[in-house]
Amino acid sequence: MKFTADRLLLFGATGDLAQRMLLPSLCALHADKLVDDDLAIIGTARSEYSDEEYREFARVALEKFLPEHRKPAIDSFLPRLSYQHLDATNLEHFPQLAQKLGTVGRGISKGLAIFLSTAPSLFEPTIAGLAASGLAGEATRIGLEKPLGTGLATSRHINDAVASAFPEDRIFRIDHYLGKETVQNLLALRFANIMFEPLWNAAHIDHVQITVGETVGLEGRVGFYDGAGALRDMVQNHMLQLLAMVAMEPPAHYDATSVRDEKVKVLRSLRPIRADETVRGQYGAGAIAGAAVPAYAEELGRPSTTETFVAIKAHLDNWRWKGVPFYLRTGKRMSRRVTEIVVQFRNVPHSIFDGKGARTQPNRLVIGIQPSENITLSLMAKVPGLDRGGIRLREVPLDIAMDDAFAGPTRRIAYERLLLDLIEGDQTLFVRRDEVEAQWDWIDGVRDVWEDNGIMPKTYFSGSSGPEAAVALAERGGVTWHE
Ligand code: BG6
C-alpha cells in the first residue's frame, strides 16, 4: 500500500544508533525540507523522559553528532519530537503508546512508520504489543535494524514473528550499506554503461576482492559484539549484499521486486566453503595511527574465541561466475578504514607486445566505497619514446573521484535515504526475507566448518592487515590482496 507516513515511531530512541545516526539524519532531512511539515517523530525506550526531557536529550546528541553546518536547524527540528516511555516486554504499556500517537501530529494519522532498533530479544514482544494495540494496521510499515538473528533458525523465528503482524510488503529490513551512495553507484556503473556488462563474467574476470577494513575496535559494544563476531556482524549482511550487487544479473527494472529477485539468486548460488577457504583472526595489541591500542581480550576483560577478522574465498555456482573466486575480507583494528571492491580482469589472450619485450598487465577495476568514493580502472599504455630498445608498457589509472565529479550535490549518510524510503514506502534498498535467510544459510555453513575443523582465530597485530594466514589464503590462489 502506498502512503507517506506522518508519524515516525522510533523504538530504541535513546540508543547509540538513534544518537549517532537516526536523529542527525532526521534533522538533516528536516533542514532540507525533505520530510513533510506534519511528520511527527515519537521516541520510545525504557527511560522515563517527558517530551521536554527527550528533546533535551536529542539536542545533546545532535550538538555532538551533526556537522557544524547542520546545527542551525536543531531548534526548528526539536518540536517534531515527543516521547513515550515503554517497557516492550509489558503488553500493558502499548495502549499508552497508541494513545500518545493519537495526540501528536496534526489531525488523524495518515500513516505510521516504525523503526525498531532494539535488542532482537525485544522484537517479538514489541510486535505482539503493536498488534494488540492496533498499531500494526494497513497504514503501518515497520523497519528492522540488525541483528536479525544469530543464524538461520533464529532469523526465521524473528521473521515469523514479524510476519504474524505485517505482510512482507510492509517490512523494511535495514542493511545500511545499501543506503550508501557508492553502493548504489555500483548499479549505475554496471547497468548504465555498455562496456562492463559484456566482460562481467568468468570468461573475462579472474577474481573479485571485497574488503571492509575498520580501524575501530570494540567501541564499548562488549555485550553485543562478543556474541556475534565479524562473520555475523559484517559478512552475513553488508559483505554479502555487496557481493550480490557485484554478481547479480541485470534486473529488468530498478524496483524492489526486480532488484531483490536478482540478488537472492546470487545468494542462493553461494557454494558451501571448505576448511581451507577461510581464516579467522582476533586483534592483539598494536598501534593505530601512531597510538597504542589494547588487544581485543584486554578490551573485553577476558579471553575470548570470537573473531574480529574473517577472510573467505567464496564461489558462486552459477553460469556467469563458475570458477571465479570472490575473496572477502573484513576486520576491526586494521591498518586503515577502507571499503572497496576490486574486479580483477583476465589478461589479454594473446599479446602482440611479447616479441617487443613488453608485458601486459591485466586490467583492474577498483571501486572505492569509503572513506573516499572513487572508481579506478587500470589500463595499459605505452611509455612515450622512440622504442629503440623495445616497447615499454605501463599501467595507468583512469581515475574518477566522485567528490570532484559531483562537487555540487550534498553527500548524505545512508540513514537519511533509508529513513526517507521507509517514510515514503520504497523497499528497493531493504532486504527481503528470502535474501536474509539465504545469507544466514550460507553463514551457518561457514560456522559449521569452523566448528567441525576446530578453526580458531589467529592473533594479528592491531594496525596490520590481518593474520598472515589471510595473505596465504589469497596467495594459494595466485592472488595478492589489494592494499
Ligand atoms: C555495523 C557493524 O553494521 O557496521 C559495526 O555492526 C561496523 O561493527 C559498522 O562498525 C560499519 O559501518 P560503516 O558504515 O562505518 O562502514
Please provide a written account of the structure.
The protein has two domains: 7-145, Rossmann fold; 178-411 and 432-475, Dihydrodipicolinate Reductase, domain 2 (2-Layer Sandwich). The strands form two sheets. Strands 7, 8, 9, 10, 11, 12, 13, 14, 15 and 16 form a ten-stranded mixed sheet that branches. A six-stranded parallel sheet has the order 3-2-1-4-5-6. The model has no long low-confidence stretch (mean pLDDT 94). It is globular. With 483 residues, it is α/β, with parallel strands linked by helices. It starts with 6 loop residues before the first strand and ends in a 7-residue tail after the last helix. Helix 6 runs antiparallel to helix 13 (433-452) and helix 8 (222-247) packs across helix 13 (433-452). It has helices at residues 16-31, 51-65, 74-77, 94-103, 123-132, 152-163, 181-191, 222-247, 256-268, 296-300, 402-405, 414-424, 433-452, 468-476; strands at 7-11, 40-45, 81-85, 112-116, 140-144, 171-173, 205-213, 278-288, 291-293, 309-314, 326-331, 338-345, 364-370, 374-382, 393-401, 458-462. Residues 214, 233, 339 line the site of 6-O-phosphono-beta-D-glucopyranose.
